[in-house]
Structures are given as structure tokens and as C-alpha cells.
Amino acid sequence: MKIMMAVTAAALSTGVAGAQKFEVEDGVISLVGCYQVKNDVKCDLTYTSKTDNNRIRLYKSAFQVVTPSGDSRYPDIIGLGANDQDGKSYAFSALNNTFSGVPVKGTLIFQNLKVSSLAVFSVSGADAIRNVPVRGSGASAPVATPAPVQQVNLSGNWQGTLSNCRAAGNNTYVCAITIKK
Length: 181
Hints:
Residues 1-19 form the signal peptide. This protein is 0% helix and 51% strand.
């Protein structure tokens, strides 16, 4: 039986668009994302084993988040595979059979936590993922500071065309604009 406790390598970031990954004893834990569910924060993850027929245990005490206000929390509920989201508070979640290279879904639930982001998400105290957004929290996206723009005289008649528009929040869209005189 393999018991997963120590992270054997530093956290690996695959970039903004991809999942954040942690190399662990016999596999990889990937943080898929976190989101608000009523008064709780739920974080989805996957565990991908490096070997077949690996018995693993994921302990709540191996996962830690720190809120922007500095509060440190461990998950109240942990689930992996068929043991996912049973609503009971066990110290760990076990999975008897894994298959090499096949990700298994998991969930961490932090009860009574309402935040728009997590300052830190860590597995066994390894290098942490910082500034993890919590989707559906109702908080608006941070406003980007635009680069200084050269002043242009726009007096007169101009036509504008919007393109590549995407929703950026409540009644807010971000678009590219092409203007012609």
C-alpha cells in the first residue's frame, strides 16, 4: 500500500491556461480549479498514477490553503474517485486501483469559506501555487493597468469596428476596436 504524504518535487506550473501540477511519490496531483458553492470553496483536482494497481491515500492534512487575509485552512471534506463528495469528513480518501497515466477526479471542500481568491494552495508544504482565483465568487476580475498610450487627436468623424469581444464580468465586455477616419 502506498501512502502519499510527501511531495517529492517542487510544484510545476504549466501556465495560466493549464492545470497547476505537483509531483508526488507515485503520481501527479493537478489542481483543476476552485469555485464558490454557497458558503464553501470547492477545489477540483486530479490524481494521475505513474503505475498500475497503485493503492493511494490522500490525507486532508496534506492540502493547505491560505486566504488573502492570512487565514490558514485544511479541507473539511476530501474525496477521490468513487469516494468523491460523500459529504462525510474523513481524515483521508483512499483509492484501491489506479491505472498508469489515467487521471482520477478528486475534490477538496473548505466549508464556511467565502473568498474571491486563495493566496496560497499547497500540497504537503511544497512550493505553492499563489493567487488561485475562486470562480463564481461574485468578485469582479482585477482591473489591469493599461500601458501608457501616445496621445492621438480623434476630433472629426470616425468609424469603429469591435472584434474579439469576450465577457469579462457583469455587463462588461473586453473588445479590440479598429477605428477609421
